[in-house]
Amino acid sequence: MTQNNNGGGPNGFFDVKKYFLAKNLTKDLPSSIVVFLVALPLCLGIALASGAPLFAGIVTGIIGGVVVGAVSGSQLSVAGPAAGLTVIVLNAITGLGSYEAFLLAVLLAGIMQILLGLVKAGTIANYFPSAVIEGMLAAIGIILIMKQFPHAVGYDADYEGDESFAQTDTHNTFSGITGALAKINYGAVIISLVSLAILIYWPKFKKGAMVPAPLLVVVMGIILGLVFGGGNLALLDKQFVNIPLVKSAGEFFTLFKSPNFSAITNKEVWIVAVTLAVVASLETLLSLEAVDKIDPIKRISPTNRELVAQGIGNITSGLLGGLPMTAVIVRSSANVNAGARTKMSAIFHGVLLLVSLLLIPGVINLIPLSCLAAILLMTGYKLARISLFKHMWHKGLDQFIPFVVTILAVVFTDLLKGVAIGMLIGVFYILRTNLRNPYFYQIIKDGDKKVIHIKLAEEVSFLNKAAIQVTLTSLPKGSDVIIDGSNSRFIDQDVLETIFNYKHNAYTKGIIVQLVDIKDKYDVPKLKELNYKP
């Protein structure tokens, strides 16, 4: 399968006409507002959990939207600071002794990602089993529902955006929910319920298409937050968005930090850089594959180009004092569910982050987290809908079991560990299927004698060796055996050796073996032999 070049223009980069078409902008602009609202608290929460300045989280979100969005070939993926990197970042900042030395590691990681893209390492994304990706999406949906519930009903000390079961506040996902119920705030509950009602019912009105439901939710949330102020339903300060206040352009520019290039000889910096490059690239490829799954137009994103785009983004982030970034499934899913059509949604969301920081931080800080939690609850519901479970069940156990195992593993560990466990189960079922289908087996009666006809498949790989060997050694004595390779384009050398050895020794059991159209050696089929058309 070839990869679609979704970059846009004749040179594969940016087609202005395409991205500024009115029919696309009417979907991309409202979607960018939704992604902006979702990304804002996540950027701040991840920065806080990483031990980095809050400004660094916002800067990373801006770069992920504008820079990565412009270079990426993906139309719906959104990049920004990732929860999966917080532990690595926190330990790196502490271990390296300064934030500036850490920024150098981020820059080096970006260079490594560009190199990975150039050597086409992104093609490993083609080997992620579909059932595992579907399971990852459903797990993210369940995690969103469980993690946002505390914000919807009261307060959660865990940082916004955490996806791991074991939380940094010594709680886990379940105890976080029970803890929130013990601190329930009825003002937050009312805002959440009204927000959910708007998200569900507003799009059903024809006039609702003119005003995005999430924007209406935020306006309503601000109004109710002000109305509840000072009364029994008043929200606490920690139940609002808390964006840094920038009072002037001069103060804004003093917030940027530069990498410490003198730390280039520190081997620990290089270890952190390699770790960031590998983990960020894996998360990006997983996210990209997942977003392509839920893209209603079913476009295929160029994975190698995405690694290059992420590399450019991390270099820029390192130079400006930001955090490492990846393509992020939560923001990307919100983007898809909001109806985005092109990469302009991601770019606009980056611009909105910048504008909010410079021009309206006071207004942004009036937004209750409970109304933003409602938006993420709806996103989670759409990702983990019941119909998806039914669909995977009807596909058979070889798809359903890896799907469910991935969900459980991601929910009870974290994204990368969970996907790794799901991959192991998925690969097991793939191998199991391959082992069962290397040949067609038929027994024909010829008088009192049995003639066993084994017709090999079109492709017989090393993975089929064990099954063929077991079958051959279990054939009854005194049989006539025909091993037919007339349908085979390729037979692995190890399998050929097994077949030839069996023929050589079969006479000791009174078995006569006849080989039909089996060569001494097979070359790997070329694309043109398979009628491949790029």
Automatic annotation (TrEMBL):
One Pfam family in the UniProt entry: Sulfate_transp
Query: This protein is called what?
Result: SulP family inorganic anion transporter
The membrane topology noted for this protein in its Swiss-Prot or TrEMBL record is: Multi-pass membrane protein
Q: Which InterPro entries match?
A: SLC26A/SulP_dom, SLC26A/SulP_fam
Task: List all membrane-crossing ranges.
Answer: 29-48, 54-71, 102-119, 126-146, 184-202, 214-235, 269-291, 312-334, 346-379, 400-431
Q: Which PANTHER family match?
A: SULFATE TRANSPORTER (PTHR11814)
Annotated SLC26A/SulP transporter domain ranges read 25-401
Give the main location: membrane
Q: Where in the cell is it found?
A: Membrane
Report keywords, A-Z. Membrane, Transmembrane, Transmembrane helix
Source species of the chain: Mucilaginibacter gynuensis
Q: What highest taxon heads this organism's lineage? A: Bacteria
